[in-house]
Amino acid sequence: MSWLQLRIAVNKPEVEALEDAFLASGAVSVTLEDGADDPILEPGVGKTPLWNSLRVTGLYPSDIHTELAFQLLSENFSGQLQHWRWEILEDQPWETLWTEHYQPIQCGDKLWICPSWREPPNPDAVNLLLDPGLAFGSGTHPTTFLCLQWLDAQPLAGKTLIDFGCGSGILAIAALLLGAKHVIATDNDPQALLATRDNAQRNGLSEAQLSVCLPEQLHTEPVDIVLANILAGPLISLSEQLIELTAPKGKICLSGMIASQSEPLMAAYSEHFRFAPPLSREEWFCLTAEKFA
Q1: Is the pTM of the predicted complex or chain greater than 0.85?
Q2: Distance CA 213, CA 148 (A)
Q3: Are 159 and 108 part of one and the same domain?
Q4: 133 vs 123, 211, 246, CA distance in Å?
Q5: What are 3-30's pLDDT values in tens digits?
Q6: In whole angstroms, what is the distance from residue 250 CA to residue 244 CA?
């Protein structure tokens, strides 16, 4: 079974209230982690964390209505919700298993995703060296793999792109290695922005090629291609912004939905885009489209 998780940054006095709000919104579990890298050991079961800044994560089934869950959480929490992010939870605990079991992945004809500590199996391929850290996007999850396959088949030379919800930066970096001129990577999780910068440096990319920013700092002219590998709820609520960010005759790649969510998602964009047949892998779907002139 696949899961979704909602991660929110919070200060220590608000932790218990946020835990209660998570459970009231339908979360099946809630976990806490240090939000500021304080050198303090995690407390025992039933004890209050000593950290001053924390990240609280609620776990939900994959078919949860994300907008409704977030609304319920907001109604049950009186504090300020900061740096929140919905994520797809990979099928395995990838944060730890990555270094133990991850193998290079071929994504299309040219592109390979390779762990940064291993020699690429095909030195002549387009090899993306990756260490995701704590950010989503290792290439193993179907939603990411579908986007990478689609990018591999696109003529990207000289193109400008936006990676909305960049996670580890895997899509933004892949686009640049495949010939794109410039990519803007944006995410509301500061950890994701750090991971993206680290992975860009690992692949020899300059700041002139890859710009990294929070969504509220995203001020740009429309681009040739918009990538958004997030979830169906946010993709619908962000539709107006993502439509505006896509240039006429530009393309959009939307990933992170299951089959039942594809139709309402396409409906939010169909006035402005002509959709290609959907791409699918396991239970997950990826939608691609070209914007009308």
Answers
A1: no
A2: 22
A3: yes
A4: 24, 19, 30
A5: 889 999 888 889 889 999 999 999 988 8
A6: 11
